[in-house]
Design a protein that fits this description.
Elements (H helix, E strand, L loop, with lengths): L2 E2 L4 E5 L5 H11 L7 E4 H7 L3 E5 L4 E4 L1 H12 L4 E4 L13 E6 L2 H10 L4 H12 L2 H9 L5 E5 L3 H21 L4 E2 L4 H12 L1
Length: 199
């Protein structure tokens, strides 16, 4: 049985909401403690060739989630991983301790994504995603409600407040879990899932 002594956190949200900036600020706020690391999943997928295809219309790669998760699970079992991606509900619930969904006003998103050169279809899809709260809903459906929080990300002040709040949460988590937490499925849940599979 493997145990981790640092929490795993997902920082998610629509592209352009400030995920990477938040993650980098968190790592800096942790005083570059080597037991924590920032995983930008888009970069990780590129480095490890975790792509199935390329979507010409949306101008983006389609990720091979099975290959990606096989590689990421090894990292998550170590603990102290701050995961930066626009998807969140694909990660094993047993390995995630906090899911932060960043929210941003559409006027801010429009400006940020336009500066990135997003084509009109890709831009509109992301704006619609934010309006419909797609990522927030996925987070709430994929994880226990008590570990999912939504934070506003419209300004540098918002980011500073968010990072301070997450750093305080990390400090409390470490104090509350001095004996670590298991990476294994709860035995009762495992038995239930196996029974359902056998039906």
């Amino acid at each position: 049985m493997t145990v981790r002594y640092r929490p795993n956190i997902i920082i998610t949200g629509t592209p352009g909401c400030g995920k990477t900036s938040h993650c980098e600020a968190l790592i800096s706020g942790l005083n570059n403690d080597d037991s924590y690391s920032h995983i930008n999943v888009s970069d990780f997928a590129k480095e490890n060739k975790c792509f199935e295809s390329y979507d010409q219309v949306l101008d983006t790669h389609v990720v091979d989630e099975d290959k990606l998760l096989d590689l990421l699970e090894v990292e998550l079992e170590k603990g102290g991983r701050i995961v930066d991606w626009h998807c969140c509900d694909v990660f094993p619930e047993r390995l995630i301790d906090l899911v932060v969904v960043l929210r941003s006003d559409n006027s801010n998103l429009f400006d940020r994504l336009s500066k990135r050169g997003y084509n009109e279809i890709k831009l509109q899809e992301n704006l619609d995603c934010e309006i419909m709260e797609v990522i927030l809903n996925e987070a709430r459906e994929g994880y226990q409600p008590e570990i999912v929080i939504a934070l506003e990300s419209n300004s540098a002040e918002d980011m500073d407040e968010n990072v301070d709040r997450i750093l305080a949460w990390i400090d409390n988590w470490v104090k509350d879990h001095q004996d670590g937490v298991t990476n294994e499925l709860d035995p009762d849940l495992k038995a239930k899932l196996e029974a359902e599979r056998d039906e």
